[in-house]
Amino acid sequence: MTFFWSSWITILSIMCWAAILGVLLMVLKYKPELEEDGTTGHAYDGIKEYDKPLPKWWLVIFFGSIVWGIAYWVFFPAIFPSKWDGIATVEVDGETVPWSSKNELYSELESNNKVFTDNFEQNILAKADASGATSTLATLADMQATMRHSDNPPADLQTQIDEKVADLAPYVEKLSENPNALKVGSRLFLQNCSVCHGSNAKGATGYPNLTDNDWLYGGAPENILTTLHNGRVGGMAAWRDQLGEDGIRAVSEYVLSISGNQPGYDLDQTKVAQGKVIFNEPTNCVLCHGEDAKGMNSTGAPNLTDNTWLYGGDRETIRETLRYGRAGVMPEWQTKLGNERIMLLAAYVYSLSDKTAQPAKAATATTEVPETVEATVN
Ligand code: HEC
Ligand code: HEC
């Protein structure tokens, strides 16, 4: 609430209390003149009015609610909420923080989560013969807490966290063979992932299929874990300005010529040759898609030689991709779901994936122009 509105409400409340207090004092001061028979002399329909004190129970409730109101002020951020935090506190993320509805929610989420994680350790990890993950998870949680609480975390902390996450890979592999873990994983998938990847995980345009063996960022358990923890952004720039429409058309033709679509197309071989040169310029496509155009897990650039397409493999869609660029965003899940649920999801995704013969990918980017290209240039 802004300072204005909190002041507005505070002032209205104080005015209201002052009015009630005024009425109370007035009533207390008022002493009616009594008749001889002890009545005030007022009579309504034959009922005479006495001047008797208010009943005890009523007074107790009345003053009790005033005390309650004052105590409420002290405990909670009730008056000038932007200035007074109240003395009530809750535990959030291992720290004692002032009560607020938000902090209370966080605190409750944490205790509910504790029920989940205890259950996860005792009923899932232990039964899948993966209890070894417990100590890694504890260290990981400590590191993440340090990261959250520090304004200026050590430079290599994120790397250490990423390494710890990767250490969970063998346990994810074990979970991926455990029916109980997969059942929970599939529920989590339906709740969190199916909006984008589909309830069968087969994806849609722009959203990769997770059940095949074609991976942007790698399909090993540690790659899936990293993808889920940190999220991914596919960065493919727009080439319109740099290559011009002719360049785009040429390089699209080349992409078609190397792709699995190629048999169905009547290709313009001049453009294919021109496109090949453009493709292989060291700072162009090879940089991310690799010398063999089979893509690279380190850049998230897809394999262009197969017939699996993220955005579409027809001539016009490829030109569209090149003209305007693409930037698929996979959100991060660490802060939303936590390490344990991510392990279950990674296990589920790994269990769905096709683990036969992953297409070979170049391990690192190349900046060398392949010889074949030089030959074409000459
Ligand atoms: C908002 C949409 C969205 C949601 C929700 C989402 N994803 Fe994704 N995911 C994507 C996109 C887009 C990509 C591809 C990123 C890119 O283009 O580089 C992706 C990529 C991935 C990859 C990497 C695939 C590869 O080929 O390397 C995995 C694994 C994955 N998602 C799993 C999940 C799981 C598990 C969940 C649920 C916790 C999830 N995603 C939720 C949009 C989403
Ligand atoms: C900076 C790295 C980088 C460079 C350079 C680059 N790409 Fe990409 N490319 C990507 C990434 C990453 C994606 C996936 C985008 C996404 O996930 O949203 C992609 C996607 C594509 C796609 C879509 C594939 C599909 O499955 O739909 C095509 C086609 C493509 N690139 C061709 C090219 C060509 C041709 C060039 C050279 C003119 C090029 N790329 C240069 C990184 C790059």
TrEMBL record:
Q: Which Gene3D superfamilies match?
A: 6.10.280.130, Cytochrome c-like domain
Which domain of life does the UniProt lineage start with? Bacteria
Q: Where in the cell is it found?
A: Cell inner membrane
Q: Which InterPro entries match?
A: CcoP_N, CcoP_N_sf, Cyt_c-like_dom, Cyt_c-like_dom_sf, Cyt_c_oxidase_cbb3_su3, Cytochrome_c_Oxidase_Subunit
Entry cofactors? heme c
Could you confirm whether the keyword Membrane appears in this record? yes
Q: Tell me where the transmembrane regions lie.
A: 6-28, 57-75
The UniProt entry, under Pfam families, shows: Cytochrome_CBB3, FixP_N
Q: In which pathway does it act?
A: Energy metabolism; oxidative phosphorylation
Q: In the UniProt record, does the keyword Coiled coil occur? A: no
Domain named Cytochrome c is located at 180-259, 270-353
User: Which keywords, in A-to-Z order, does the entry hold?
Assistant: Cell inner membrane, Cell membrane, Electron transport, Heme, Hydrogen ion transport, Ion transport, Iron, Membrane, Metal-binding, Oxidoreductase, Repeat, Respiratory chain, Transmembrane, Transmembrane helix, Transport
- Grouped into one coarse class, the protein's main location is membrane
NCBIfam families linked: ccoP (TIGR00782)
Task: Quote the PANTHER family the UniProt record gives.
Answer: CBB3-TYPE CYTOCHROME C OXIDASE SUBUNIT FIXP
What does the similarity note say? Belongs to the CcoP / FixP family.
List the protein's name: Cytochrome c oxidase subunit III
